[in-house]
Write the structure tokens for this entry.
Amino acid sequence: MRYYIEYTPMASQVIVVDDDPIVGSLSLELLKDAGFTAELVSDSLKAQDVIKREKPTLVVLDILMPGIDGLTLLHRLKSDPETEKIRAVVVSGKSFEAEKARAMQYGAELFIEKPYDVDTFGTKIGEILKSEGVEPRKIERPAAAPMPPPRAEIKAAIWGCRSSSSAVTPVATRYGKHTCCVSVELPGQMIVFDAGTGLSLLGNDLMKSGRFKSLYLFLTHFHPGHVEGLAGFPCARDASYTLNVGAANSPEKRLEAALAEAFEPGFGGQAPPCTIELYELIEQTYEILPGVRLSAFYANHPGTTLGFVLETDDRKIVYCPDSEIYGEYGTALQDYDEKLGGLCRGADLMFHDARYTEEDYARHRNTGHSSFLAAVDFAGRNRVKQLVLVHQDDSYADAVLDQMAKDADARVAEKGWKTKVLVGREGLRLTV
């Protein structure tokens, strides 16, 4: 796999200096969303030289950084004739009144406390920039520019999306009872997320059609509801198939051992006939195919658990079935909601954990799963175009899930969001 690194050659109107890659990237994306060119510098020791060279209109500085802290850097910038007129904003979780006073004394225009409001951050910075006569940059398009070619369809399908628990799913259910498995079909390639029991349904479909002899399978983690389908996966019994499997090693179990254990019930300790290629993932962005990027990130769930962001042809799909969003229960020390927001903002399609009703979530907080309304609120705030609620509790009958859908629609209407919300079910097919 190749790492994908994005850079911008355009001179920046704003430079963000923050050693935290998650918060720094979030600030960077919010500024770009507001229409300003921006650059992230994570090494405070190099920041002053970069700022002198780029001469931005404004800098955004964190305080607690290795090397040079943000207030010292601010004082140096304002004491240097080359940079003294550059305006500055301090963004930090170190928000004592004494720190705020020092920031203003050294020449900061504004002090924003972390975690900040993602809906107003870009606006606040924009107001300062506009007071300097700096407007968001617009791309001028030639009047006679040729029409771009039509985008290829990307198809997603749910083969299983229920949780694995001690409860027994009602026998008669319109939503299905197979555990997690979602496929994304790109032109000439299929990508599969998780290998719950729904994988057998996908395998039967693939064997019947004869398509996609090479599959990419990405596992969020090794809990049974995400790997138990491998033992019965029909494609694994066919030597003409290649299975490219990516997952994160956990301290308790490496990927190779986890797969051997998952295949064991169906193959009696023998290796499956198919070809298997393993890819050990970390929190990183990979170019898995030409023009197809996969970002793996650590999700808020017990154990080493990943979520995934798939990006190709200007579209973004997020898969995160085991993830606890804090929402109104969040504190200043819990920045997971901000991290996830930075990764999925503006996504075309998001599959997210919605295991509990509000009442049940109150009894199961801090177990690594979300209430469905927290997921709806999160998607609405982050301008996700379409949200699919998955990983519903195995004990919920259809009536509970039907009500979940009604309540989700009511919340979207109440808040005025444009997000479309669906309750996940087996057989649901979507085009992005």
Summary: The radius of gyration is 24 Å. The CA atoms of residues 57 and 165 lie 55 Å apart. The longest strand covers residues 292-298. The chain is about 30% helix and 25% strand.
